[in-house]
Amino acid sequence: MDESRMIPTKSKKKTKSVRFFRALSDETRVRILERLRDGEQCVCALTQTFHTGQSRLSFHLRVLKDAGLVIDRPEGRSVYYTLNHKAIREAEVIITRLRGEPASTASSASYSTGVYVEPLRLPAYETGPEKGAA
User: Fold this and answer.
1) Higher confidence at residue 33 or residue 124?
2) CATH annotation of 15-108
3) pLDDT above 70: percentage of residues in the chain
4) Contact at 8 Å (CB) between 40 and 81?
5) Is the pLDDT of residue 18 over 50?
6) How many other CB atoms sit within 10 Å of the CB of residue 44?
7) Domain parsing of the chain, residue ranges
8) What share of the chain is helix, strand, coil (3-state, %, to 5)?
9) What's residue 111's pLDDT?
């Protein structure tokens, strides 16, 4: 097999789009983003909302932060998280490019050209108890 034509499968540094899609590949992380859409949240509040331990939630928040989708702000012993709206706009650019639209349209993300680029819409997930649970 011609090695020059092989697609590398591992790289030491992941691209922004790979980190973005990896972050969105987990339902809990998508639900966290949906929760942060309403505004800044403390880790303690998110822990109560998701009925999970702080270490598990911190793992998911770190993945989101590494992808650039959330920003953290320490205050005393607490850490507050908020959506990084700039990263959300960059995600729209990634999606636009995947659609095959021209790069100029994708890079402007409809803010300067007047071309409408549909925003990234995350599916709504149920946040209540599992179906069929007593």
Assistant:
1) 33
2) 1.10.10.10
3) 65
4) yes
5) yes
6) 14
7) 15-108
8) 45, 10, 45
9) 43
